Amino acid sequence: MAETKKLTDITIFTGYSYIGSSKEFVWLPGDRIGNKQMPSRFIFKGLVCEYDVEALMIRKDLYLRTNDGKEYIVNDFQITDISDAESVAGVARNFDLLFEKFPEMKAITTGEKVIISKKTQVVAFKAVSDVIHQVRAGHGIDVKQTQEVSHTLVEEVLQQPDAIMNLMDIKSFDDYTFTHNINVATISLMIGQALGLKKADLEDLGTGGMLHDVGKLKIPLSILNKDGKLTDQEFAEMRSHPNYGYEILAKSKGVSERARMVALQHHEKFQGGGYPRKLKGTEISLFARICAVADVYDALTTDRPYRIAMTPYEAMKILTAGMDSHFDPAILGAFIRKFSLYPAGSLVSLNDGSIALVLKNNPTSVIRPVIKIVADSSGRRIKERVEVNLLEYKDLFIKGPADAAKLNVTASTAA
């Protein structure tokens, strides 16, 4: 029989969406009966929700924090019994210490070099978690901790100056806000690196990226996670989070003005019309213009209560449609050059109906990699290995990812 686990006096959260607290969390691993694996169960005893239990039901992953600072993740959970408010029960796929389940971000380079190490991601995650608890408790932010994480992120990004990040691998957990802040900081740093920013500038940029959405701590959970259109009043409140963020950071000693401006201006648009101040062009700080690209990309490619995540290809099309209006063209261009839409080894569908295997990326154009055609437009398999550099074929381009199951073609058999 699998071992039962217990945690006491925990706080429960999903990103900036603080859920509440529980006197005890009990994990009951599912037993195997014959060939059948029974589902694992959990019980929250003495659960106190800030809003209502329904707030738990719209998420897939939960984070539990103990008084000694340890953090756990409950994956793919589902509430099954709320008949007793003092003992809320459910099922979940697994329950582990956060570090043990945190995946790595990888670059598309020879040997799959790691851009941001697993250890650094966990430290960054904890820093964002600590910020939330510090602000909620009415304390100032421990800026030193955030700056140290930013310094480490910069050091690791600078170790791989020519790396192209795989946008398919940057996603970590279902939870939006915690990983969103880390992703935005990482993407912003790689854009800043591509733009030739100095190390000290990158460290301020990283801090700004990690703290850019801190103002959402002042937004009610009912608005943040609303499944449906916001009312005019709710939308106005949501649009207040940049001002809230700036106010929080202004009260925190040691946060540079450049980092504060990221929180204040990351929703401004390059040609105007953004919020909160409808700034244009270089009236918007450079760091905020960088963060705007990273912020929108990561938001588009993450599942939200009101929208299914887009593929990196779909998100890139939306970003490029906003070139010259929403985003600074130079910054968006650096982003497009630096990131990989199609990882090496992935299958893609071409405009002529054929299927190809991505062999390697072109640093100057991530949407036109080097490929190998594995099936023609009629579905006939092509065995001979012929490399095609899409940079050299103007009339041939990728329409999107290919469905390997439907096409009866896999990367392993195509290689």
Beta content comes to: 15-25%
User: How would a textbook summarize the main sheet?
Assistant: 8 strands, antiparallel
What is the top-level CATH class of the largest domain?
Answer: Mainly Alpha
Unreliable residue stretches:
102-114, 167-176, 409-415
Task: Walk across the major sheet and give the strand order.
Answer: 8-9-5-2-1-6-7-10
Give the number of domains.
Answer: 3
- Secondary-structure arrangement, i.e. CATH architecture of the largest domain: Orthogonal Bundle
Q: Mean pLDDT, as a whole number?
A: 79
Summing up helix and strand content along with how strands pair, one would put the structural category as: alpha+beta
- In total, the number of strands is 17
Radius of gyration: 23 Å
**Secondary structure: helix percent:** 25-40%
Tally of separate helices = 14
Q: Which shape, going by the Cα principal axes?
A: globular
And the CATH topology of the largest domain?
Hypothetical protein af1432
Separation, N- and C-terminal Cα atoms: 43 Å
- The CATH homologous superfamily of the largest domain is termed Hypothetical protein af1432
Please provide a written account of the structure.
With 415 residues, this protein is α+β, with helices and mostly antiparallel strands. The chain contains 14 helices and 17 strands. β6 and β7 form a beta hairpin. α2 runs antiparallel to α3, α3 packs across α4 and α4 crosses α12. The longest helix has 19 residues. The radius of gyration is 23 Å and the shape is globular. The two termini are 43 Å apart. The C terminus is likely disordered.
